[in-house]
Amino acid sequence: MVKEKACVFISGVGSNLKSIIYNSRESNFPINVSLVLSNNNKAQGINHARKFAIPFKILDGNIDKFENNALKEISDRNIKLICLAGFMRILSKNFIRRFKGKIINIHPSLLPRYKGLNTFKRALKNKDKFTGCTVHYVDEKLDNGRIIIKKRVNINNDDNESDLKKRVQLEERIVYSMAIRKIFKK
Ligand code: GRF
Hints:
Blueprint: E1 4-10, H1 15-24, E2 31-38, H2 46-51, E3 56-58, H3 63-75, E4 79-84, H4 93-98, E5 103-107, H5 119-125, E6 130-137, E7 147-154, H6 161-183
The chain binds 5-O-phosphono-beta-D-ribofuranosylamine.
5-O-phosphono-beta-D-ribofuranosylamine binds near residues 17, 86 and 169.
């Protein structure tokens, strides 16, 4: 099977990156992670790229500079999918248009509920019975594009933010790769 090339954008821990890399080692997984880009030179996730000898670049500076450099890196490599995995910058409309239908993101809530930050805190404050995570295409509005997959996670009465985050993130690591398979119908 010929695998498509993907690039993952990260800013932090990189647990989603790690799970995508692990799954991409399966022969029938549709993509290979060919490049990891981070806007943060302290992102722990870079170590996963290092460990698996995946090319990575730290592109600091403002978002314009990041995008210009990212564009150069991506154009050189025939990248078919950009996965945002804990990437904490908002991409410009131009960049998103340039890669229309090729950028996906994971968000820690059941979209369209709780776009933006502090999703766990907000779900707990509202005494929701469940929350979850969503993988979606990125469009020009924040956390708004077409949904690829959602996974529900129950909220227990005694959950605090950190309990909930842990349980949702366990599911994230599974659904991100499911979404990638779904996109490529594998
Ligand atoms: C995840 O919770 C994801 O939903 C959000 O940022 C977090 C990133 O975690 N967008 P990690 O860096 O993949 O561990």
